[in-house]
Each structure stands twice: as C-alpha cells, then as structure tokens.
Design goal:
Blueprint: E1 5-8, H1 12-23, E2 29-32, E3 45-47, H2 53-59, H3 63-69, E4 77-80, E5 86-90, E6 101-103, H4 104-112, E7 117-119, E8 123-130, E9 133-138, E10 143-146, E11 148-151, E12 169-180, H5 183-186, H6 188-194, E13 198-203, E14 206-212, E15 218-225, H7 239-249, H8 255-262, E16 268-274, E17 287-289, H9 292-295, H10 303-320, H11 325-354, H12 359-369
Parallel strand pairs: 1-2, 1-11, 2-7, 4-13, 11-17
Antiparallel strand pairs: 3-6, 4-5, 8-9, 9-10, 12-15, 12-16, 13-14, 14-15
Helix pairs in contact: 1-4, 1-10, 2-10, 10-11
C-alpha cells in the first residue's frame, strides 16, 4: 500500500495517526493551520486513560517516554463546598498510573517528534469524488489531491462538511478560563488549597475548577449556565470588568476559593459546544473524521483520549489491511461511531450533573467515578 494520505490538523488525533502510520513505514502528509508549534498557547493538562490515550501512545511506541513526562500525582482530586468545607480529598496511590496528567504542550512535542508538518496551511474545503481523489483546497489558493483525507481539525472542522451537515450546538454552559503562574511561590495558600492535582467547587448552576499543570502553572475554569451572548456588553480587553462580573456570579462563596479569580490574569471565554450525541454520516469514499471533528463532546476527560486511540487504530488498520481503502475506512467508522456514541452519552449526562441546580449531583457523580 502506498496510497496518498493526508491528515488535516496537528492536534492529538492527527499527530497520533501520523506517528503510528509512519511507525509502520507508510507516508502521510500532515497539514496544520498554525504557522509553528508554538504559535499559540497549547492549552491545559490532559489525563490519559490506560485503555485509551495510553494505549494509543503504546501503539505509537511512545508509552515509556510519556510515562517519564507525565504526572501521576496530578490524578489527585479535591472537592470543596462553596463555604470552603472539604467534601472529598482523593489522592492516588504511588503506583497508580491509570490516568496520569500531562501538559498538552508536552504531549504535542512528544507526538511531533520528527514528523514533517506542513505548517501554516489553512484548509478551506475538501471535495471528495474528483477524478484524482479527494481534493484539498487551501486558503492560499493552492490545492492537492489525495486518496484519503482524514479530518482531525477539531470542533469547527473544515473537512466535516464533506461528509456531514452537522454543526456544533451550544450546551448552555460557558467556561471562562484564567491562569495563575508560579503558584507555589507567589500564592502558597492557593497552592496548598489546590493540592497536587485538581480542585473543584460546585454550586447552583455553576462551578470553579482549578487544575495544576507543570512548572507551578494552574489553569482555572469558571463554569456556569448562561446565554451564549452573556458577555456581549463586556470589553474582552477589560480584565477588571470581567473579573468583577465573575466575582459577582460567585458572590457568597468562600474567600479562599474566590482568590482563584482575584489573582487570575487574562480571561478567555470558552462556551461549550457539542455535536449530536450519535453523530454519524453516510460513508464518503476518500474522506473520514477523527476526534472532535467527528464527535465533539463536553470536555470531561474523554475527547482527547478517544481521538488519540482512533488515530492509532485507523493507522494500524490502513497499514495492516487490504489495498481497498474504502473497506478499511468504512469498518473503522462503524467501530468509532459505536464507542464515541457511548462516551458522548456519558459526558453529556456528566455535564448536566456537574453544572446543575443541585450541587449534590456533582458530588454523587464524582463518587461514582473515583475508586473507593
């Protein structure tokens, strides 16, 4: 098999697909719209599950390197009441590697390795079924044809319209992200409050979550139910106005918890969108999707894990399957849809319980998923 294969998107799904395919000796072209790996902040931390993301890294031959970079202690989870009372304080065993954390930037660098990425190539459209295969059109006016185009380009995928008319819809829950740097030195009280992993506080229709990254960096997420345009009258450059708005939303919560917002720097608005829970499409020869492009779901620890495993599985199927790309991709899609549909139902229900009129729902959900 020496088919012309392209993957659109240099995130965890696309890079895992490319690494596994290359490991089996097959060429693949990766297109990424960012002009360079460090063109924008890589995001927060990911917990890679033993039977999902870690399995994908094993297929790519990168598991040992991941284990050296990951933070098993980051699996720790502490839940507070809005008055500051500690409700749960779970800490992993020293040998527990079920879901260790890794910064997205470190994972990206691990997956990049020596891959040849076409940086700064923004895809505008994919046209399947031309006489030369699936045609990829770029913002700079160029175009290239491939036997298979894999869309791993995220929530607002430019590849998705080639196979599906579905578009993400707003969940009703918004997340506003801020961050603290050098927390152990500059904010030791908050460092102790957060612990080694994550801290969560759940109230009526809102939550505050803080997650440790490496190097003393902490991501903070204020989550609440609101209309999509709740921030229309706020100047995104006016940090203090945004801070005041958020503090008002969480008025009455314990002072140490609110310090997470008082010391945050910039605030980034991230409304949570999802695709339909059971998103599928009629098979289109020459084009398929991975990860958020295929099954965007609430960010509750499953998305990146599924995306990476899908990338690894598709690559292995292409490397070990028959020459008929169509049969291989069709079988992969059926498998992906079934598994992703199950996870989409779980995460959608989870979001409803975590940002709920009844904060006890969040606590009960945590007790279900954490080991005793």
């Amino acid at each position: 098999m020496r088919h012309r294969i392209a993957v659109i998107g240099g995130g965890p799904a696309g890079l895992t697909f490319a690494r596994v395919l290359r490991r089996h000796g097959y060429p693949v072209t990766v297109f990424e719209r960012d002009p360079a790996p460090d063109a924008r902040p890589p995001g927060g931390t990911l917990d890679l599950h033993e039977q999902l993301g870690q399995l994908a890294l094993d297929k790519a031959g990168l598991l040992a390197e991941f284990q050296a970079l990951s933070r098993p202690e980051g699996q720790a989870m502490r839940i507070l009441d809005t008055d500051g009372t500690v409700l749960r304080d779970w800490r992993p065993r020293p040998d527990d590697r079920a879901n260790p954390e890794i910064d997205r930037g470190r994972l990206r660098d691990l997956l990049l390795g020596t891959l040849d990425i076409r940086w700064g190539r923004t895809v505008t459209q994919v046209v399947p079924g031309t006489s030369d295969g699936a045609l990829v059109r770029f913002a700079d006016g160029r175009q290239e044809a491939f036997d298979l185009v894999v869309g791993a380009d995220g929530a607002w995928s430019r590849v998705r319209p080639a196979v599906s008319s579905a578009t993400p819809h707003y969940t009703g829950v918004t997340s506003v992200e801020t961050a603290l740097d050098d927390v152990d030195t500059r904010h030791p009280d908050l460092a102790r409050l957060i612990g080694d992993g994550s801290l969560a506080v759940y109230g009526v229709n809102r939550a505050l979550v803080a997650q440790r990254n490496s190097g003393g960096h902490v991501k903070v997420y204020a989550q609440f139910r609101a209309p999509l345009d709740w921030h229309t009258n706020l100047d995104p450059a006016d940090v203090e106005a945004l801070r005041s708005t958020l503090l008002a939303l969480f008025d009455g919560w314990a002072a140490p918890v609110l310090e997470l917002l008082r010391h945050g720097g910039t605030f980034v608005h991230r409304p949570l969108h999802v695709l339909p829970v059971s998103h599928t499409w009629p098979h289109v020869p020459g084009v398929t999707l991975l990860g958020d492009a295929a099954h965007l779901m609430p960010p509750l620890g499953a998305g990146a894990n599924l995306a990476m495993l899908e990338g690894a599985e598709l690559a292995e199927s292409l490397a070990g399957g028959p020459d008929d790309l169509d049969d291989v991709v069709r079988a992969f899609e059926e498998q992906m849809w079934a598994r992703a549909g199950r996870w989409a139902k779980i995460t959608t229900a989870g979001l409803e319980r975590l940002v709920s009129p009844d904060p006890a729902e969040a606590l009960a959900l945590f007790d279900q998923v954490q080991p005793s």
